[in-house]
């Protein structure tokens, strides 16, 4: 688990450097969110459950089994990018073999998709659980409320995970909703909403495990709100200095989930300086190698630019 949190962090740093070098046009940093992403995703079953992440979810898709190489293929828009063959915006994650459903650019559209997929799973009496991740801003969208309402009515096997970093780009939470906890909204749809410290990886895992068990037992959906923070701008195109103070960001960094988790492991005698350095070197090596290989991978054929744009014009369209 710690390795995944660290991989998500180092991958982010590497991707941002590629952006600043002019090689990656657009990246979405996850820094600060890795704890709740890996913690919640850890309770999911690879190859069985269905994942509907949002654009900031590098830690979720890594936990689902996407490799750093595959993630860089997307960032560099290469032909073998599993999300879209290099044809969608980066971070619109999709991976057919891993059960990751690609998202659309309007926020919260993955939420009714998740409810619909969960309905199909219940209808067919299958064992899978569906999870959908999103930010606090997405909970202002109509799609979000429709998805939760439908899931509550039909007691569907789905978990909704809010990564509340308190901003929708530049709009603070206080301008998005008149309540402190997004989790309160679950009551309106007839199922539990829980608040968890999003910087505490294990607490996020515990909340998700319970929700996942509930879903599998036919007890219906859960909304989990992870209180977190994003340390960097909304995307590589955003200057967050225009809407929040450096003091606020600095304060949040004291609760960095990577640091908190590392300290916990040290306190349990599971990590020391040598082990931490070795792990960092190992993960860094893996990321450098993935990055170089993805950079050298083939670009999509120009003639494929219109594939998947119109329904039914391709044998692959299903
Ligand atoms: C329906 C819709 N409205 C607005 C946007 C523009 N937009 C893109 S990301 C974003 C902020 C979303 O914030 P949040 O859900 O809190 O996630 P975060 O980026 O903070 O992780 C907005 C408003 C959009 N993509 N779709």
Characterise this structure:
The protein is an alpha/beta fold and 318 residues long. It is 40% helix and 10% strand. It contains 10 helices and 7 strands. The protein has helices spanning 2-20, 34-41, 58-64, 68-75, 110-123, 142-153, 201-216, 246-253, 257-267, 273-296, and strands at residues 50-52, 130-135, 158-164, 167-168, 171-172, 193-197, 222-227. It has a 5-stranded parallel β-sheet, with helices on both faces. It has a two-stranded antiparallel sheet with strand order 4-5. Helix 6 (142-153) links the parallel strand 2 (130-135) and strand 3 (158-164). Helix 4 (68-75) crosses helix 10 (273-296). 44% of the residues are buried. The model has no long low-confidence stretch (mean pLDDT 96). It binds thiamine diphosphate. Thiamine diphosphate binds next to strand 2 and strand 4.
Please describe the structure with a list of short key phrases separated by commas or semicolons.
318 residues, alpha/beta, 5-stranded parallel beta sheet, two-stranded antiparallel sheet, 10 helices, 40% helix, 10% strand, globular, binds thiamine diphosphate
């Amino acid at each position: 688990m710690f390795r995944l949190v660290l991989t998500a962090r180092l991958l982010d740093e590497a991707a941002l450097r590629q952006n600043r070098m002019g090689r990656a046009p657009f990246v979405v940093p996850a820094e600060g969110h890795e704890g709740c992403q890996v913690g919640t995703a850890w309770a999911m079953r690879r190859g069985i459950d269905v994942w509907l992440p949002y654009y900031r979810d590098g830690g979720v898709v890594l936990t689902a089994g996407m490799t750093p190489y595959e993630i860089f293929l997307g960032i560099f828009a290469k032909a073998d990018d599993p999300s879209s063959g290099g044809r969608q915006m980066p971070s619109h994650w999709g991976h057919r073999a891993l059960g990751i459903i690609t998202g659309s650019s309007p926020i919260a559209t993955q939420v009714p998709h998740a409810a619909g997929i969960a309905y199909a799973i219940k209808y067919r009496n299958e064992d899978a659980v569906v999870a959908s991740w999103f930010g606090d801003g997405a909970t202002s969208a109509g799609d979000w409320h429709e998805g939760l309402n439908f899931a509550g009515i039909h007691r569907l096997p789905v978990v909704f995970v809010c990564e509340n970093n308190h901003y929708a780009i530049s709009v603070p939470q206080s301008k998005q909703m008149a309540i402190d906890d997004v989790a309160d909204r679950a009551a309106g749809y007839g199922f539990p909403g829980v608040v968890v410290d999003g910087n505490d990886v294990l607490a996020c895992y515990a909340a998700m495990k319970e929700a996942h068990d509930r879903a599998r037992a036919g007890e219906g959906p859960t909304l989990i709100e992870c209180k977190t923070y994003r340390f960097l701008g909304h995307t590589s195109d955003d200057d967050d200095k225009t809407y929040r103070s450096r003091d606020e960001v600095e304060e949040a960094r004291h609760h960095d989930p990577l640091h908190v988790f590392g300290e916990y492991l040290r306190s349990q005698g599971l990590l020391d300086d040598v082990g931490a350095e070795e792990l960092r070197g190992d993960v860094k090596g893996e990321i450098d190698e993935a990055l170089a290989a993805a950079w050298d991978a083939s670009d999509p054929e120009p003639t494929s630019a219109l594939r998947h744009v119109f329904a039914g014009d391709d044998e692959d369209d299903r």
